[in-house]
Amino acid sequence: QAGGRGKLLLFTEHRDTLGYVRDHLQRWGYSTCEIHGGMNPHQRKRAQELFRTSAQVCVATEAAGEGINLQFCHLMINYDMPWNPTRLEQRLGRIHRIGQDRDVYAFNFVATDSEDGQPIVEGRILHRLLEKLDQMNEALEGRVFDVIGEVLSLNDVNLPDMLRDAAYDPRRLDEYLDQIDRIDPARLQAYEDATGIALARSHVDFSTFQRRNLEVEEKRLMPRYVEAQFIAAARQVGLRVEPRADGLWRIEHVLADLRSERLQSVRRLGKADSSYRKITFHKHHLEQDAHLDAVLMGPGHPLYAAVDEKLNDRLALLAGGIGFYIDPMCREPYRLHFFEISIRGKDTKGNDVPLHGELVAVCEDLPAAQDTAQAGGGQFEVVPSDILLNLPPHPRPPENVDPVSTQAASDFLKSTYQLECRARSQEERQHFAEVCREYLEKSFEVRIKRAQERAMLLAAELTTKPEYKLTADEARKHVEELQRARAERLDGLKRLGIARTGPVRHVATAIVLAPDADTQAQLADLADELDPNVRRQSEIAAEDITVASLIEEGFPEGRIERIGHLKLGFDIRAHRIADEATGEVFVKRIEVKGRLRGQPVRLTVNEWYKAQQLAETYWLYVVWDPLGDSPELVCIHDPAAKLDHAKREIVAARFYEIPAEAVMSAASQEMG
What we know:
By secondary structure, this protein is of the alpha/beta class. 41% of the residues lie in helices and 19% in strands.
């Protein structure tokens, strides 16, 4: 492909074929990498990264058909066709999966005739099968390569046996071709209806699924925070990370102790490279021609994990400690206690499995007391754990602080939020178990009935054909095995409904103070914000106006959610189905600001970063004079892009301030 940007995944059956193809490709001037069964998981991951960043062609055996995601590639050649149809499914699944945003092209090499014009039996059968699969694709709703094995099995086509027998007796070729022509895709639908697969699909609540997809997208780690955390952590452990002229980063030398086998992260993920010429924390950079060779750094990367492990070792003594912060909007101090909670369950075999884990913040309002570290007996409330992102650290924290009791906050958390999480997890698990039970009962009923019919037929044949004894005995044992498997599987489902609370571990406490005199001087420009009652009334009125506007725009009222209390970086989520056929969703994430006309608009650092992350689905709705007689709503789509030039950072309050004139200018351009 022009510029060398094309990526081709080429599968072979055998290592010697791999070497033959690789050598020819290299002689023709293509850059290559390889993945095969002789490589350990770390080596395969490195080959995957080499393929993504530089190699044009990856030549692979079946080892690349398992556990590796290659969505950045959309061209595939099966140089050798596998006899096992399941392996063909696995091959295509490497690139045709969630995350693939381009059309995928798969080319299957099949030789139907030899050089001297003689028919090649294997090639003729495979060629006819591929033609048949292409014809069935529409009937199977485009998922033919996901269900090849099932379709062949239900039509009594054993491909390996057919190819083997045809090689021994080529005269039966026409018989086998005719058998392939008779493959009926309707048998798959009948089987799915009979065994309950269709039933299982009917239990999927797509509206809930769509909503959860939106939530997952919103809660995804923001690259800006991952980048800031890694750069700061690297500084703490002595790793030098230098900025590049193009806005990315480089690491000339990775310290030996970050590549040591003593680290758990190295044993789990493999060693980091000795250097990195170009790294980024933003996935969209990898789609740019100038940065195809960049390495994406983040959780799950060997170097990121090694730095994180070393940092945690260094900070271990600070666990359970205390930090001081300032809340420009508060008038009384309060505490934020951070805890790790977990919910545990069982799998069908009785093994412990984690069901839920979360970092939770408990806010403790402090009664009037001289010593904020010692005051106790306040009111507790669970608040978003990323609340610290909007609070600047105290410029002059006290050097010595007495320990803070967290028992009351821990007891509150155990008796409220953790029990809610347990109930939610248990309800989800019980629903899942019930769907599985219905499916298994119906599936086993069909399978056992078929097995019994076959066993009875063979038992009848046995009376006149003694040579059937072994086959009849195996058929009877198969029925018994199915019955035993049904009992075991259904019994195991009972364990899925179990959910219990795990330990609660205190991580840290933040003491949040009102601004002191020096800080108040820096925040003098924010005086109009300091009346919390008026501010809250303005927010509610502005949200009411926004909701009314969304309903008028056509969003169903039931799909307009006020979620400002979750501190996700916006106040309202509204979505509607844009295409009923595909289920495509149109969503607006809206940050609402109620301001007096002419006042600047202020977004917290978290809101601004979220606007950058969500971009095209993020909106800023500003309501001028929301409590007045003539409120005015203005809307700005993708404000991080359109207002970036006008923002002013107020470091002491962790705000970005945008002049009213810039807001009105952007809004007028939106309308124009």
